[in-house]
Amino acid sequence: MNKKKTLSDKPERLDYWLLGAALLLACFGLIMVLSASGIMAERFFDDKYLFFRKQAIFLCAGTFMMYLCSRLPKAIFYNLVYIWLMGAFVLLMLSDFTPLSVAAGGAKRWIAFGPIRIQPLEFCKPALVLYLAYFFSRKQERIRSFSIGFLPPFAITGALCLLLMLQPDFGGSVFLCMILFFMSLVGGTRISYLLTSLLFAGGAGYLLITSSPYRLKRMTAFMDPFKSAQNEGYQLVQSLYAFGSGNVFGQGLGAGKQKLFFLPEAHNDFIMAVVGEELGFIGVTFVMVVIGFLLWRGFKIALAQENLQDRFTAYGMTIMLGLGFVLNLAVVMGTVPPKGVPMPFVSYGGSSLLISFIAIGILLNLSRGKV
Amino acid sequence: MAKRKKESLKSSRNKLLFVMVLFALVWTALLGRAAWLQLYKGADLSRLALRQHLAAELERGERGNIFDRNGNMLATSVDASSLYIRPVKVTDVSGTVAKLSKILGISKAKLRKKLSRKSNFIWIKRQLDDRTARKIKKADLPGVYLTTEFVRLYPNNHLAGQLLGFAGIDGKGLEGLEKEFNGRLAGRKAQFVVQRDASGRRLYLDELGREMDIRGKDVHLTIDSHLQSVTENALVDSIKKYNAKWGTAVVVEVATGDILALANCPRFNPNIFRTSSPKTWRNRAAIDVVEPGSTMKPFLIAAALKHGVITPEKLIDCEGGRWNLNGKYIKDTHKYGWLPAHKVLRYSSNIGVAKIGLELGVQNYHKFLTDIGFGSKTGLPLPGDRVGSIRPAAQWNEIDLAAGAFGQGVGVTALQMAKAYLCIANKGVAKPLRLVQLPRSEEDEAPKRIFSTEVAEKVLSMMREVVQEDGTGTRVRISGTTVAGKTGTAQKAEKGGYGNQYMASFIGMVPGYNPEYIVFVMVDSPQPNHYGGVVAAPVVKTVMTETLAYYGKLPEKQNSAPVMSASLTPSSEMPKKAVRANSAQTSVSSETVPNVKGMPIRRAVEIMVKRGFVPKLKGQGMTIIKQVPEAGEKWPEDENAEIVLWLS
């Protein structure tokens, strides 16, 4: 990995494998969004292609952002870290405290600027990654001290989580905390601090869950979804039915039945259930192989970096995507309690698609000449 | 410093590799989970998913209602819980049996036998009352389920029982209109039942995922429940008084062809159809083919007038009451000599019409009968509606023709008679009868002129003589208006000829000059008196009087007649009608407590609450069996007065 390619007259190669994997996944996602949402969209909006069209537009916008991020000088990301972080705080506060926010199902997780709706949480993820990568690489010599190496990143992440909890978005907070955990792990925070904070986080999580009947219900529903199949466990049970009905080869693209309103949010967080039902284990395996490949390329790029901030940034972006993939799959297959985590590239949603492409763009940027 | 950097690069590299391995493990675990879900558990889960559709199969939409022309409910459905088990899901057999036995009152042995069956689905008890259903729900036994079914209810009990028919426990129409319109009334099944949210709101989808309405569609009849009730009561009175076997009556509005009432006696209550013999389910007006007798004569006269064979004044020799035709004797009840044609009808001379028939000829008479609707179905949506029997013209000999002239040897239904008289009342233009307002019948027969207005006027004039002059139908006279009519007293065919049982009938049209209503009544085997002019005529008179009163067309003098039948007050429409009929008596229905017996709770309570009283409910069940205050009593003046309804 330390081999330097010095042929400066040749344009420095990007990691086209990573680019290919991301585009493949995004196009596959586009098809699945059409399959999952077509019937629902026709019934409720009288337009079968509504979500498909929107997702196609997001895809174009995302590709453009990816190109931009792969081309821009790294300084734009690195030197403006606090600006990005500030942006994330502003977006969260807009959703918490202003009428711009759009409430859905009792939570204000969206803000609307005219026709454009964005989900602040998604934009917090890359901003946090950039900040943590910056922090851990710059403060490397003091990293093992408590007040300088430990406190600031935990305080910043904690503040973001607090704002998220005001929405409220418990799942989003957990996601950010996990980014923090993995960044600290590699960044060099003392293991004893990490374990202690993990303990605290666990305690806080427990208190949060038991203090809210809604969360508690979802938790117990997760333990035995079939017992509450008509209530809290409904979505999960329907998801499991979808996977089971898919068997080896699936029902065929577009032929799934669970998405016919059985499976709420079929084109959204639960899109992998539609993949499971319509394309079977073969289809799920295909997606997982592409995901595995994509993550492998991401880690590879991170390992290839000689500059610490480069490495942490690449690693953080990979972790951000990886956590999205893993948590989403774990939720739809019923291995972790349900949280609203979209499947990067595959689920319908502009914010998620956009930041996924940005992450790939930054990875591509960092891959230049390294792979 | 550089060394330090190298170190941290190296240490981070190791930790990064560690995270990579961690992710690889999680990735493998997730793939394993997918394999477990899809390959190992796949069959089980997909079976469970299919069961969601099985649940959809159990769920049927509510059966549509049947309404009369004013929107009064004649048939409706109320929901009830039914209990079924899936034996595989029952964890504790003896405990379940014990609890179910206690709640349902079914013997343990019987329950245990049911539970031991290797079926996925077994009904235990259907259409439970609410209290039992609540107990079952509370017991929360695994493998024991409740589902909603609908119980068919006929709020007016006997009213129009044979016409409505009934639906079985599975909600399938088995007789009458319930059978005929089953396709429309029946609740539908959705391909998928989707729970949209945790609150249990449901969405019903067809196989393509489109939302559908699973509720059955309603049927609106032309029947007026008040007139139906009046007609049935009058018919029942006559049947009782003359010890008859059965009777049927049809009331038709001339302007529209609407059947306002279609009564059959003895009556039958579709709420408890099991307790009565299938014989009483027959809608005889449509199904029973009878020889009509003299009520057929006006058609012969009309045909003869049409073909110019007679004029009303043409004299016919009635042979002194006994006439030998080809070795057969034709007899008259009274002896007449020469009579003009109009008196032949007035006095109903068989010999007279036989001679006119012979002169008219088989072809002409036969064609006239088929044109006016005999020998073909009435087109009404009634199961078993008969064509009757009119033999082909070629098979008639002279005797047949002579007999056919006074209504023997031809088989007709009461509804065919009503339809044929509608043509006369409509001045020679045949038009279809109507029984159903909604759904509209697809192909309405176009009105067709059968004979001229002049012929119709002449026949009507003769039929007025039957009632207004010294004819056979004087008992239906209504003072202040004229009535046109014709009696029928047909000897019933028995083995080896005609015996001493009679079919008494009467056709009445009112007013006599421009008829607006037709009433046809048939009474089978009345005793001791068997004359249509005695047995059937009073029914016709009562029905006509009530109909005129109801529509506010009864001349002033007759105002005493209509009293709203209390058993039929659920309609808000009827009091209005009563206002029209007789403003002095408006108070009758709105100031007194209506009869809510036999009504579903919901409806009864609705009626009470509308008047400002919240009734106390006693007992359990879904229908009212007893009420205090009684029907017809004045509404209490005190708003807090107690109204009690007993349920069953």
Element order of chain A: H for helix, E for strand: HHHHEEEHHHHHHHHH
What is the global morphology of chain A?
globular
Radius of gyration of chain B: 34 Å
Q: What fraction strand of chain A? A: under 5%
Write structural notes for this entry:
The complex is a heterodimer of chains A (371) and B (648). By secondary structure, chain A is mainly alpha-helical. Chain A contains 13 helices and three strands. Chain A has a three-stranded antiparallel beta sheet with strand order 1-2-3. Chain B has four domains: 18-53; 57-221, Penicillin-binding protein 2a (Domain 2) (Alpha-Beta Complex), CATH 3.90.1310; 225-550, Beta-lactamase (3-Layer(aba) Sandwich); 587-647, Trypsin Inhibitor V, Chain A (2-Layer Sandwich). In chain B, the strands form seven sheets. In chain B, strands 1, 2, 3, 4, 7 and 15 form a six-stranded mixed beta sheet that branches. Chain B has a five-stranded antiparallel beta sheet with strand order 9-8-19-18-17, with helices on both faces. In chain B, a hairpin with a 2-residue loop joins strand 11 (322-325) and strand 12. The interface between A and B is large, with 54 and 46 residues.
Question: What tags apply to this protein structure?
Answer:
heterodimer; A: 371 residues; mainly alpha; three-stranded antiparallel β-sheet; 13 helices; 3 strands; 68% helix; 4% strand; globular; disordered N terminus; B: 648 residues; alpha+beta; Penicillin-binding protein 2a (Domain 2); Beta-lactamase; six-stranded mixed β-sheet; five-stranded antiparallel β-sheet; 22 helices
